[in-house]
Amino acid sequence: MSNYQTILLATDLSDEGEQVAQKAAAIATAENAALHMIHVIEPLSFAYGGDIPMDFSGIQDEIQSQAEAQIAEFAAKYALPKENQHIVIGRAENEIHSLAEALNADLVVVGSHGRHGIALLLGSTANGVLHGATCDVLAVRVGES
Ligand code: AMP
Question: Which tens digit of pLDDT belongs to each residue from 58-116?
Fold first, then answer.
């Protein structure tokens, strides 16, 4: 079995995301693999666009700059260069799949909340990433047991 060469960590930039990042970084070190991080920002217009007649572009720019600062702080802990930090706007699972394919990643690492049943066990994003992924997916359990 060959080693992983390119690992994509999907992060929501939360405290829980830290546990997931630590696992991904440990695997990357053990496998001598490149580690990339992605954080996806869902456009406000997806949630509110149809209902509120408002220009969201200023708020969206602010969210993007905050996310860039946060991912840089996150990435610094693992000495990840800027080109391995990806902030993308769209639907999380779609963008994670697209970037995994573009990078030719052989492992995607996500967090999952272990509560009840398979749907909740995987959580919505983790579930979406698993289905349709063209490479291995590691779901790291986070949060309450
Ligand atoms: P959730 O389904 O929202 O509980 O999230 C589960 C996991 O999906 C997180 O631990 C992350 O690995 C990933 N994830 C959730 N939201 C995002 C996001 N906006 N960008 C990238 N990854 C995400």
Answer: 888 899 999 999 999 999 999 999 999 999 999 999 999 999 999 999 999 999 876 56
Q: Is the CB of 92 under 6 A from ligand 1?
A: yes
Cα first-last separation, the chain? 32
111 contacts 12 by C-beta, under 8 angstroms:
yes
What are the tokens at 120?
């909740």
Give 124's contacts (C-beta < 8 A, 6+ positions apart).
Answer: none
Q: Is the CB of residue 40 below 6 angstroms from any atom belonging to ligand 1?
A: yes
Closest residue CA from atom 19 of ligand 1: 40
Q: pLDDT at position 60, please? A: 85
- The tokens for 61 are 């720019």
**What's the rounded Cα separation, in Å, for the pair 129 and 64?**
22
Q: Compute the Cα dihedral for 50, 51, 53, 54 and give only its sign.
A: negative
**Domains of the chain (ranges, CATH numbers):** 6-141 (3.40.50.620)
